[in-house]
Every structure is written in structure tokens, then in C-alpha cells.
Amino acid sequence: MLTIYRRHVRTCAHRSEGRKYRRCRCPVTVAEAWQQYLADAEGRVLCRPAVYKAKLLSRQMEAFAQGNGLRFLRGSTYRCCEDSAHRG
């Protein structure tokens, strides 16, 4: 199972509660989300082709995020993806 952790900013009131507290608005970066996803995929001991596909998708999504100026998941929207598809 994939679990997203927050990296709390210094001013977050919930920083002392640790990374498992997810109800705050601290950002999750695209890179962090993919690292967690890949760790989960490898932790579940998926077959080699499934892990390969996850890593391939990760590289493609990271390139897409960088190409569209997306750093945080919160900035990723359907409209952003749709606009990119029409440009490309």
C-alpha cells in the first residue's frame, strides 16, 4: 500500500506530530511522491516487469513535471495535463 508522507514546513503547527500527520497543507513534491511509490512497488516484491514499468512511468512523469514547471503535487491539475497534451 502506498502512503504519502508530508514534509512539514518550519511554520507548520503539526510539525511536532511527525511525517505521518497528513491533514495539514504542507506540500508534497512530485519527486517525493514518486520515490515513495517506487519504494512501495519494490517493497511489495512485484514482478520485474511491473517494477520496470513503474520506474519508466516515474521518469516520464518527472520529465513532464519539470517541463511544465510543476514541483508540488498540489500544482498538478487536469487542466495542466490537458493544456500540455494540446501543445505537444
Please state the CA-atom Rg, rounded to the nearest Å: 15 Å
Give the number of DSSP strands.
Answer: 0
Task: Tell me the β content.
Answer: under 5%
The major pleated sheet works out as:
none
Written description of the protein model:
- The chain is mainly α.
- It has a domain at 28-87.
- It contains three helices and no strands.
- The chain has helices spanning 30-43, 48-67, 78-87.
- Helix 1 (30-43) packs antiparallel against helix 2.
- The chain is flat, with a radius of gyration of 15 Å.
- The N and C termini lie far apart (34 Å).
SSE layout:
Blueprint: H1 30-43, H2 48-67, H3 78-87
Q: How would you summarize this macromolecular structure in one to three sentences?
A:
By secondary structure, this protein is mostly helical. The protein has a domain of 60 residues. The chain is built from 3 helices and no strands.
